[in-house]
Amino acid sequence: LTGLTQAKTLVGRRVLLTAGPTFEPIDPVRGITNLSSGKMGYALARACRDAGAEVTLISGPTALPRPAEVHFIAAGSALSMHAAVMEAVPHHDVFIAVAAVADYRVANASAEKLKKTPGQAPTLTLTENPDILASVAALPRAPFCVGFAAESHNLLAHAQAKRERKRVPLLVANLAQHAMGADDNEIVLLDDHGQHPLPRMDKTGAARAIVAHLAGMLPIR
Ligand code: CTP
Ligand code: CA
User: Fold this and answer.
1) Which residue's C-alpha comes closest to atom 23 of ligand 1?
2) Which of 41, 70, 71, 153 is least buried, going by the fewest C-beta atoms within 10 A?
3) What is the pLDDT of residues 138-172, one digit of tens each?
4) Which residues form the DNA/pantothenate metabolism flavoprotein C-terminal domain (predicted)?
């Protein structure tokens, strides 16, 4: 498909996406984060835009250029990404959660830089972050929700359980060790009808295939 004009399957739809990792501070100069280049989420934002959607991208820190003609909101921590999503979501009809959100943040983060004391490693206490996708899917007027699952093993079993737990109509599953940082991806789409494996392709092609599938699932307006 690359190089061809994309079918305008999302004209009149407003799509909100999260992408990239989150960064959970330990102190002003340190933090914990997840491995995520943001490439898949940014490719999906561009594919939604090219399909005619109005797109809002809420992104954690990445090294990628901002996609043109996409409303862009930068987020750092999971809490700030959650707040930005909850504020934006009422204005959107589709939510695609691609971000690798940190499951935990540091409860005892320090406002001042921690000084190294030889022989005394600090102990970090972790506390659970909100599940952004599950919170959106549980809203009374939830948009059409798409989730991602990057698993290191038992891909389809974990992904199927995740789809049911988060109550999302469409879940995109991929093997973490294939996808992380790479330019291509091999994905399986999970919906009410079962599993739809897609051939290995670059992330632009994968994004277009996801858009085509999700556009076909949206309620006709
Ligand atoms: N997600 C989210 N907010 C979180 C955690 C995850 O929005 N706090 C979203 C991700 O963007 C992705 C989906 O939920 O679309 C699945 O994320 P994943 O980390 O694979 O699932 P978890 O439920 O966190 O389970 P685990 O990390 O144990 O596999
Ligand atoms: Ca997780």
Assistant:
1) 162
2) 153
3) 999 999 999 999 998 999 999 999 999 999 999 99
4) 10-215
Within 6 Å (CB) of ligand 1, which residues are found?
18, 78, 97-99, 101, 103, 129, 131-133, 147-150, 162
In this structure, the number of other CB atoms found within 10 A of the CB of residue 64 comes to 14
ipTM: 0.99
66-92 pLDDT tens trace: 999 999 999 999 999 999 999 999 999
Nearest partner of 158 among 171, 169, 168, 145, judged by Cα: 171
| Residue 162 marked as a ligand binder | yes
Q: Nearest 5°: phi and psi at 133?
A: -60, -45
To which H or E segment does residue 162 belong? helix 155-166
User: For ligand 1, what atom is nearest to the CA of residue 130?
Assistant: 8
Half-sphere exposure of 31 (CA within 13 A, CB side): 17
